[in-house]
Write a structure and sequence with these properties.
heterodimer; A: 2 strands; 67% helix; flat; B: mainly alpha; 3 domains; 12 helices; transmembrane (chain A); transmembrane helix (chain A); DUF2157 domain-containing protein (chain A); membrane (chain A)
């Protein structure tokens, strides 16, 4: 990751965390002010909503800027390639040199949009002449490869989690695109490659995350995104495969006719095992992302149970599943609450500092009130869990 | 984070007991599963009510209507009885939930009430062609429950049911009239919600409900106004209204530092202005591109200036 981010992120993280401490009532407002003064970040950040607007209108402006000469000069394919070849490095240079290194912008929307546009323009600049030369499939495949490489570069260099997610989506689509471009009539092979790719990237990020305390925050988010995307990809693959939804309706191909007999039971078993494995890992590592994945995928597995075990009683299954989930939550809440100091081992059902939504204010989520916390005043001392409100993004004001 | 905690303790900003607790949290010796359990509970209740709905549809012939009605009514009454017993009664201020289950039991009760009403109408057709009044009744009951039990989720359920009633009512007016009537109803609905929230806040009554009113009301208002900008005849009036509401939304965002309202104002406003300009101009393609270029540059500049002035990140 680039030096300004690696050095500056620590201050941003401490400032953001101090707000959560204050909102949970763990420290007083005066103490939070002291932390903010001591760790005032040098990086410039804006509120999440302004960031969205800046990204949107920067992208709109740049697209209009490239469209204007294209329309005035009535350029054809070669002209567009040239325009993209001029604008791609220009966007990257403005974002990296002018906005990030000179102005010290950090997740402000404008520089993120410019970098994403740079990657997109470059992929189009390569794809257009190849497609123009008659090799349409190869052209799109080249564009796909550049998008994948560009997204990975953005994730590694700037720690953009969204770029990491985009990279994982591009990686997942690559085997199918490759099979299509090279006329391989082997859907099973593409699935095997997909599975291996997801398994490899998921395992790699999981191993890297063992040293999470030494990683910069941006890299940590990217790795967490890669791990979750890999897990979600594998889960969706096995789950959708088992009831042939995606394959039949999206790709026009049903695997039933070509599959070996054990594929369906294996997918069914994996659909049950993946949430359990994520739950076990989440508990052992005390990892919130894995726990959320386990809960959500577990619920999805219960709801799609009928595709594997054909009881033929959906109403009864859903009622039983609802009772089971509700009962489980109640039992766990009571069990954790009845432990010494309201906890069992390291686990407590009381809210501590969560959730941290990095700039999203609580009001935007007011409609989901039972899931939203309330704010408490400062606590005296000792372990007095507070109801943390949503954290805000914070940094300097200059732009 | 451990280094920062050492530093903050050493500099005297945090006291030892605070840093000890924070070290335990960041060292994962203390780990909260509060949100995960709430998510589980929420999903469980939604699954359960869906399953119960399907069970009713499947067995209502064999079990008997009275038995089913009694079971749903009993479950609904049980939920409300639990909330009445556990809750502390009405208060104009925010009330903390007495236990983790409270909010969810109330939600379950409200959903069962909706199921009961639907079942009654389906089976006995009590209101026949006036069936949409069930929606109005539900919305009013949910509003009452939201205020009495102090629950923002039920409040948003009430407001959306009220909106659904208006939509259904409009659809019964006839196909030709539908678009205009729906837009007018949406304008009235959005204005009413915003006004109700503002009046409640002014009276010091459930002030914490204001964000729910504003987020829903402002979105409905702006969407209705944008949809009217392109209409014949009344277009300029809708455009003027959009500018006024958008300006108020941006002003509110700046005053309360709730920048989501700035997002609404800018996005809906830009969409409305663009529709208005494109409708009322005879530019060629270069003109349109120039319009997007100039407006995007102007908005980026304005947003940067806004951030500088109000230090939005802090």
């Amino acid at each position: 990751m680039i030096a300004p981010y690696e050095m500056g992120e620590r201050r941003v993280a401490v400032t953001e965390e101090s707000r959560r401490w204050k909102e949970a009532g763990l420290i007083s407002p005066e103490q939070a002010l002291g932390v903010a003064k001591r760790y005032r970040p040098e990086l410039v950040r804006v509120n999440l909503f302004i960031r969205i607007l800046l990204a949107l209108f920067t992208a709109l402006g740049v697209v209009a800027l490239i469209a204007l000469p294209a329309v005035i000069l009535e350029v054809e394919e070669l002209g567009m390639t040239l325009l993209f070849l001029i604008f791609a490095p220009a966007c990257a240079w403005v974002a990296d040199r002018k906005l990030i290194h000179d102005r010290r912008l950090y997740r402000c929307g404008a520089e993120e949009a410019l970098l994403l546009l740079a990657v997109s323009f470059f992929s189009l600049a390569v794809a257009i002449p190849v497609i123009d030369g008659g090799a349409e499939r190869l052209g799109w495949l080249a564009a796909h490869g550049i998008l994948l490489a560009g997204a990975s570069l953005l994730a590694l260099r700037y720690g953009y989690a969204l770029a990491a997610l985009g990279g994982m989506v591009a990686l997942s689509a690559l085997p199918f695109h490759l099979a299509d471009a090279l006329h391989w009539q082997q859907p099973n092979l593409a699935r095997v490659v997909l599975f291996l790719l997801l398994f490899a990237t998921g395992s790699w990020s999981h191993l890297r995350l063992r040293h999470r305390d030494k990683l910069p925050r941006g890299s940590l988010w990217c790795l967490e995104t890669v791990r979750l995307a890999a897990l979600a990809g594998i889960y969706l693959d096995v789950n959708l495969f088992a009831h042939r939804l995606m394959w039949r309706e999206w790709l026009g191909w049903s695997p039933g006719a070509h599959e070996v007999p054990w594929t369906d039971p294996l997918c069914a078993v994996l659909t049950a095992l993946i949430p359990l494995a994520a739950l076990a890992l989440g508990i052992v590592r005390r990892n919130r992302a894995l726990l959320w994945f386990a809960v959500l995928s577990g619920i999805a597995s219960i709801l799609t149970l009928k595709y594997y075990v054909h009881f033929g009683h959906l109403a009864e299954e859903l009622t039983a599943a609802g009772l089971f989930l509700t009962g489980l939550a109640f039992v766990l809440m009571r069990w954790l609450g009845s432990g010494f100091d309201g906890r069992r081992g390291a686990f407590t059902a009381e809210p501590l500092l969560e959730p941290c939504l990095y700039g999203l204010d609580a009001e935007a989520l007011a409609a989901i009130q039972p899931l939203a916390p309330g704010t408490r005043g400062p606590e005296a001392e000792g372990f007095r869990p507070g109801g943390g409100s949503f954290g805000g993004g914070g940094a300097t004001g200059g732009y | 984070m451990q280094e920062a905690l050492n530093d903050l303790e050493g500099s005297g900003i945090l006291n030892p007991s605070q840093t000890k607790l924070l070290r335990r949290i960041y060292g994962r010796e203390l780990f909260s599963v509060h949100w995960e359990l709430r998510l589980l509970l929420y999903a469980g209740i939604l699954t359960l009510t869906t399953g119960l709905g399907l069970l009713i549809a499947k067995y209502f012939a064999s079990i008997g209507h009275l038995a089913l009605l009694s079971a749903i009514a009993l479950g609904c009454a049980g939920c409300f009885a639990y909330c009445l017993r556990r809750g502390g009664g009405f208060s104009p201020e925010r009330r903390p939930a007495p236990d983790a289950a409270y909010d969810y039991v109330l939600l379950l009760g409200c959903l069962l009430l909706g199921t009961l009403q639907g079942y009654l109408e389906l089976r006995y057709q009590l209101l026949a062609q006036y069936w949409n009044l069930w929606l109005l009744g539900s919305a009013l009951l949910y509003l009452l429950a939201a205020h009495y039990f102090d629950n923002r989720l039920v409040l948003s359920l009430a407001l959306s049911t009220l909106g659904a009633w208006l939509g259904v009512k409009t659809s019964l007016l006839g196909a030709g009239f539908w678009d205009t009537a729906l837009r007018e109803n949406a304008l009235v609905f959005g204005a009413l919600i915003v006004a109700a929230g503002a009046i409640q806040t002014r009276l010091g009554w459930k002030r914490h409900f204001l964000p729910v009113h504003l987020h829903l009301g402002v979105n409905v208002l702006l969407a209705a106004l944008v949809s009217g900008v392109g209409s014949r005849g009344a277009g300029p009036a809708f455009f003027a209204g959009l500018l006024v509401v958008g300006f108020c939304s941006a002003l509110y965002a700046q005053r309360t530092r709730s920048f989501a309202f700035l997002l609404y104002a800018v996005l809906y406003g830009y969409l409305g202005v663009t529709i208005f300009v494109l409708d009322n101009s005879r530019w060629d393609i270069e003109g349109f591109i120039l319009y997007f270029l100039v407006t995007a540059a102007a908005l980026v500049t304005a947003l940067v200036a806004f951030h500088r002035r109000f230090r939005s990140a802090e």
